[in-house]
Amino acid sequence: MFKSTTLMLCMAVSGCSFIDKLGIGDKTGSNNSAGTGKSIGAVETPKVDAAWFSDYETNLQTALTGSSFEITRYENALIVTAPVDSTFNPDRPGMLLPVSLSPITKVAKLLEKDRTTAVMVLGHADSLGSAELNHTLTTNRASAVGAIFSLSGLKSDRLLIKGMGSLMPRSANDSKEGRALNRRVEMVLSPKNVFKVLVTQYRSPAQPIKVISPVSPAVAKTTRVALGESKKTPRQKKK
């Protein structure tokens, strides 16, 4: 059974995720219909058809079952998050573990068959280590994941690979658990027309990015799908 929890909100003390800063749109429940993303400056991301979400959510859930990856739905993108601790070799930080190759390859194969969809592969780190070290580390990790998409035939018009260092945490870095959440690689899937707008905004932001204040839980709730959990059947009473 897929497990639903509330996504951790942006914290003023720890910054916000890449998604909130790029204007990918409000977080939504996994069954909500698509909408129009927030704009950055004068640019607004295109509306995504609900059928695209329906097809990709179903296919991603099938592809990632049994893995430690998570799926998060936004108004105009689907984010597949690979936790570093269960995805990369601890002795060789830029090398994928064998167990992670299959789910990433399955995601890449979905895009190989659909030339209308694109992906941004973004590496993230915790705040330990220097900025230069974290940038190199996250670039190497994003490149390791992105290479699988390249092998599936994706070119630069549908694939962006970027190391973000520790600039965009999901959680505060003052605990072991928080730092583990921040060490991740995100695969941001969207229709190609949305991808083009997001990449333009990302490379040349129309205005300086500011830290966003905490949002009311009633407004910012989302669904995070943790995959690989088996459905428990209630025990029957003995006769």
Automatic annotation (TrEMBL):
Coiled coil: none
Assigned GO CC terms: membrane
Matching Pfam families: OmpA
Domain OmpA-like: 75-193
Domain of life: Bacteria
Entry-linked CDD domains: OmpA_C-like (cd07185)
Record keywords: Membrane
InterPro entries: Bact_OuterMem_StrucFunc (IPR050330), OmpA-like (IPR006665), OmpA-like_sf (IPR036737)
PANTHER family per the UniProt record, alphabetical: EXPORTED PROTEIN (PTHR30329:SF20), STATOR ELEMENT OF FLAGELLAR MOTOR COMPLEX (PTHR30329)
Protein name, entry field: Outer membrane protein OmpA-like peptidoglycan-associated protein
Organism expressing this protein natively: Azomonas macrocytogenes
